[in-house]
Structures are given as C-alpha cells and as structure tokens.
Amino acid sequence: MKPKISDVAKVAGVSPTTVSRVLNNRGYIGEKTRQKVDEAMKQLNYFPNDVARSLFIKKTFLIGVIFPTTTNPFYGQLIFHIENIAASLGYKILLCNSQGQEDKERSYLRMLQRNQVDGIIAGAHNRGVKEYDIPTLPVVGVDRYLSENIPVVSSDNYDGGRQATQLLINKGCRNIIHINGPIYLETPANLRRKAYEDVMKDNQLPPITYETDGDNQAVIKQLFDENPRVDSIFASDDLIASAVIREAKLRKRNIPSDFKVIGYDGTETTRLLLPELSTIQQPIREIAEKTIDILTKEINEEGDRSQMETILPVRLIESETT
Amino acid sequence: MKPKISDVAKVAGVSPTTVSRVLNNRGYIGEKTRQKVDEAMKQLNYFPNDVARSLFIKKTFLIGVIFPTTTNPFYGQLIFHIENIAASLGYKILLCNSQGQEDKERSYLRMLQRNQVDGIIAGAHNRGVKEYDIPTLPVVGVDRYLSENIPVVSSDNYDGGRQATQLLINKGCRNIIHINGPIYLETPANLRRKAYEDVMKDNQLPPITYETDGDNQAVIKQLFDENPRVDSIFASDDLIASAVIREAKLRKRNIPSDFKVIGYDGTETTRLLLPELSTIQQPIREIAEKTIDILTKEINEEGDRSQMETILPVRLIESETT
DNA sequence: TTTCATATGTCAACCGGATGACATATAATT
DNA sequence: AATTATATGTCATCCGGTTGACATATGAAA
C-alpha cells in the first residue's frame, strides 16, 4: 500500500497535521521536526497524493492540449514548447490528438472537463463544435477561431502569404498557383490564401488556387496537368511544398531556374530534412509562450478581455527553391 | 460554482445515491428516473468530477509518457499512436519532454507519482536514473533499458543495422562509415552500430564510426575531411542522414552513383519531406501497440514477467540514395 | 513575573463521489 | 395472501489531504 500522511507521521513521531504543515510550509515548524519528517518521507518513499490535494484545493494544475496530431512537425514542435513552458510554471499537459474529427474533439472536451483541467489550449476545431464555450473554463485557441469569447494566438498569416507571393513575383514569376489544405476550417491560416489572392490581383495576375483534402499527390498532379505553364507554387505548408518539389522533379522542371516553390511553417524538422526549401517560418516558440501567458492569466483571473487576438510576426527564409 | 451530484439530485428530484447509481449503472434504476437524471445533468451542464472519483477508486486512468521531445518526428509519431491507442482504451496521456536531461526526468517521475498515474511509458533515460524502479507502478520502456525489472519494446535494431550495412555492401560500397547519436545511453539502438561493425568485419572491411553530440554538421564535415575516399554512410537516424546528404552535395558527390546514404527510422514526416532517402523503417505503430498492451496488462495485474524484451521487425525502404 | 512568539498536538469539517447496509414501496408472480 | 424482483431513499463511511479552531508547552523578551 502506498504510504499516506498518517504513515509518515507515525514514522516521524509527529502528528499528521505537522506533516501537512511541513509539506505546505505553513505555520510554525521546528528545524528538527522538519528533518524528522523529511527522513520519514524518504524512508517510506512517500509522495503526496495530488489527486486528494486537487480535490480539496479545487485546482489540478492540468492543462488540456488539443491538436490534430503530434505527427505533424508543426504541432509536434508547438506542443513541445507548450509542454516545456507549462512545466516551468508547474502545469502539466493532458495530450489530445483530435485528428480533425469532430466527435473526438467533443469527447476530449468532455474528458478534460471531467478531469477538472485548469485550462485548455486548442488548435483543432471543426465547425460546429460549440462546446468550447465553457463559461467556467479558460480556453485559448492557436490559429483557430473557436468562438467569439475565446482569445486566439496566431502568426501573421496575411503577411506571410503576402511575403511569399511577393517574393515569387519579384523573382519574375507570373503563373503562380496557391495550394492549401482543407479550407472549410475557420482558421486564420486562410489569410495566407487571401493575401495570395490580393497580391496577385494587385499585380494584375490571375489567382489560381487548389485545395488538397489529404491526398496531396493527386491534387498536385492535377494542378500540373491543368496548368502546364505554371512557373511557381506557394504551398500553405511545407509538407505540401515538398510534394510539389517531388512532382516538379518528376516532370523535369528545373528548380529554381525554371520553377519555384515556397512553403509555410519552417519547423525545425523541415529545416533539417529539406533545408533547400524556401519557406515562411512561424515563430512557434513565441506562439507557445504567448498562448500560455494568456491562458495562465485567465486561470488566475487576470485576463485582459480587450485583446482577443494576438498576431506574431513571421520570417521569410529564402533558400534554394526560389 | 460547478454543479455536483447533489445539485443534479435536487433538480431531478431524486436522491444523490440514485444519481450515482445512474452514473455508474449500478443496482436497479427505473427508465423514467434515468431520464429525469439525464435531463438534470444536461440542464446543469454537469460533468462528473473524475478527481473525486479517482480518489475513491484509487485509479486515475492516467499514463505518464516520457520522451526526449515531440519535436523529433520519430517521437512525435510514436506519441501520436500511443495517445491514440490509450484513448481508445479509456486512458489519458500526461506528456513529459525530458530533453535528455536527468534532472528533468527525475522531476517528471516525481510529478507522475504524485499524480497517481496508473503506469508510465518511457523512452528517455539517462544512465543513473534509478528512480524508474518503482515496485508499485507499472513501467514499460521503449528502445531503452530502464532496469532489469522493466520490460522493453523496441524494433529489431540489430537486424536493421545489418540490413542497412549489407545493402551498401551489395551495392558495391567498400568505404562505409557509420555515424550515430550519443552512444552513452544504454539503448537497444546501439545494436545498429554493433550490427554495422559485425557485418563490416564479416566482409573484411574496417568499421569506422563517428558520433555526433548534437552538432551534426560539424561532425559530418570532419568525417568527410578525414575520409576523402568514403563512398557511403549509414546514419543512425534520418535527420543525420539528411545532413549527410546536404554535405555530400556541397562536396559535389553524386548520389547515388558516386556516394550512397541510408538512414534510420522512416517516419511519415521523413517519407514526405525526403522521400528519396533510403532508410530502415521502424514499425512505430506496432511499437506503440505492443507497449500499451504490456503496460495495460501490468496495470491489470495480468503481466507476463517471462517476456521482458519484445523485438519487432523493421523494413528496408530502398529509395534513391542507395 | 508576565507576555509573547514559536512549536506541536487534537479534533472536526470539507472537497465530490462511491458504496454498503438497511428501510420502504410498488408491482408482478406464485 | 405471500413472495419476489424492481425501484428508490437515508445514512454513514471512506478515499488522502487541507485547513481552521483551539489547547498546550517552551523559551525568550519585556
């Protein structure tokens, strides 16, 4: 049986209350007593039961984190930083991979509430999941509009889209196509596409966009078939950009002289595996920092309801595909 | 204030015990009563408090997961599958990024015990962290020997190393160099190197190994400088392999005619970003499955202490760098 | 000598829910 | 009419730790 406070008290020869006082540094405690208690805890290999503690203090120091999948390098890196910063503040992470499925998202939300998390960070969101509006529970969205009452942190997607498109134009491209993931999500990431369209129009160029539903390869083939004169592609993330490069090489296009590609995200993993890819790098660490900052302030009821949207600057990385 | 069982009872016009009976499906419950209770719960937006429940039943359905970092695509994908399978069994994941630091690992272990996790899955391990030997708590290691009493799940690293080396030899390479990450970890992954050395010796070829401490690029440059005649490299993971390719291209080596590279891991992300890389693919999903299978059996005290090591087969992916 | 800060103990209530014991009531069976 | 399965209520206890109230003891300062 796991030892409890009363067991520690017996071994140390003090009262349970005294042990609790030592644990929580409350009231008067003598130096010798503290030592006796510490020794007893070590001897019994005692660990305070945070479940019991949480029940009483009505706080778990748990943060629920919902993203589509840790497999994607962007989310993997973002979650790493979130966990990291949270841990430094004494918070622990309950991990949820929603996989873009509404029902999973809903059931995770129930689960997190049953577990009495102190707050939720979510970057997954299907239209129609209204369950995020929980009056009693702080929630922060990352790159996703969850509800009018929920603060969002994202990078400057519009500026990123603008920079990417402008770069291609500056390099002399005219037949620039944008390709993005599922657009039905109400996400600030759609601004990348909007910026692309705006910049194209400003330059009297016709915007053409494709959308992948997951099968990147098929859509990209179609794109090339339907647009033989395409001279560059702005992909809404680096994975798609990579598939584009692949297909372009198969079609004997010369990168970057004959054909240019720029991606989006600029994760550590992409930089390592595909350093030649030009891309728009998101400030992942800063997004994590800001998100936790807002969330913990809401948890401690110091939330600033005036700033509902936080936008962080992106950085253009010019490499060898542009 | 969050509603509790007694609030639900009041609204439904029944006793708290009856509500608890409905929640746990225990004893006799009338259909009308069940409906009244369900409605009351919906009306109050009631969620059972799992903290209180856990305290009483002495089970949290929490699994602590400790790996170096979710940023690495191998761990990201592994954790995704672990979370996924765990969720389907009603378990939740407490995520820990140890970053290869002993002190972090230790403090995570304390944290997990305080939180009364039902079990721990760990793939991080620094020599000297003996705290994994927790008599009362099921632990399973992934690709890491944590202690003599802790079961390990890994892929067949020796066979992977053998296949990789043999492939290079079969392709006519003779100056094959192995490069791996920090080797001081007591990990089955060291078998990759052992296999490389064995195969080389079997073929009367001198094994040469390099070790990176994190700064891949520097070590790789040094490797090329010191071994101008190197004709192929077996890297212990795909990220290193990618850096090797990078450097080889800088040195105008022609891949694969003039110079060959094979990596290790074969994650989804690598396959997407660097599909041309030949590699040894680990069965990540199966590793996750087996790990959880062993862990849950230990949690339910159906553990099979005879099988302390589980080794799953790897798969050679021949692509364009060999 | 009195006063007070320090140190520790005892005791009870509480956090929210689970559960066993027991009482009671209704309706269906025998 | 007696028995039994079904349905619900009351009550107390427990899970492990926190906290406030109150008592008591000691040594130092006033």
Automatic annotation (TrEMBL), chains A, B:
Occurrences of domain HTH lacI-type (ranges): 3-57
UniProt cross-references to SMART domains, sorted A to Z: HTH_LACI
Organism superkingdom: Bacteria
Gene Ontology MF term list: DNA-binding transcription factor activity; transcription cis-regulatory region binding
Pfam families: LacI (PF00356), Peripla_BP_3 (PF13377)
Keyword terms of this UniProt record: DNA-binding, Repressor, Transcription, Transcription regulation
CDD domains: HTH_LacI (cd01392), PBP1_Qymf-like (cd06291)
Gene3D superfamilies in UniProt: 3.40.50.2300, lambda repressor-like DNA-binding domains
PANTHER family found in the cross-reference section: LACI-RELATED TRANSCRIPTIONAL REPRESSOR, RIBOSE OPERON REPRESSOR
Protein name: Transcriptional regulator, LacI family
Record organism: Gracilibacillus orientalis
Taxonomic classification: Bacteria, Bacillati, Bacillota, Bacilli, Bacillales
